């Protein structure tokens, strides 16, 4: 029997490039991750970082995650992945690890909000800390959704 010479069709869907990134799950989560993470950083910075050790970690996680996610989004938009399966592994590992880091940051930020409630100069800091906690948990949820939804493609 002679081989037909046709390549075997891949069962894996192609990775999106260009505007299709914004229409494809889980890659559509990248932009909301960046936006919510940016709000975390802005809101914590607006509190004048009342608790430097705790909120310094929150700012580090949020800013670093925003920058790396932005680079990942740009790489998907310009198609730097070349449909490599390694990008799915990289994407899943990055978003899984970032979800864990963001969970720690969200819990620490919630602690900072609780502590700032009873502080004498907390008239403005308490609501900002609460809003930062809210966005930190939303961002954590987005990173978890992104990490797990790669497996269900």
TrEMBL record:
One of its GO terms (molecular function) is structural constituent of myelin sheath. It is found in: Membrane. One of its GO terms (biological process) is myelination. Residues 21-153 form the MARVEL domain. One of its GO terms (cellular component) is membrane. Pfam families: MARVEL. Its main location: membrane. The chain crosses the membrane at residues 25-45, 57-79, 99-118, 130-152. Keywords: Membrane, Transmembrane, Transmembrane helix. It is a multi-pass membrane protein. It comes from the Eukaryota. This is MALL protein. The lineage of its organism: Eukaryota, Metazoa, Chordata, Craniata, Vertebrata.
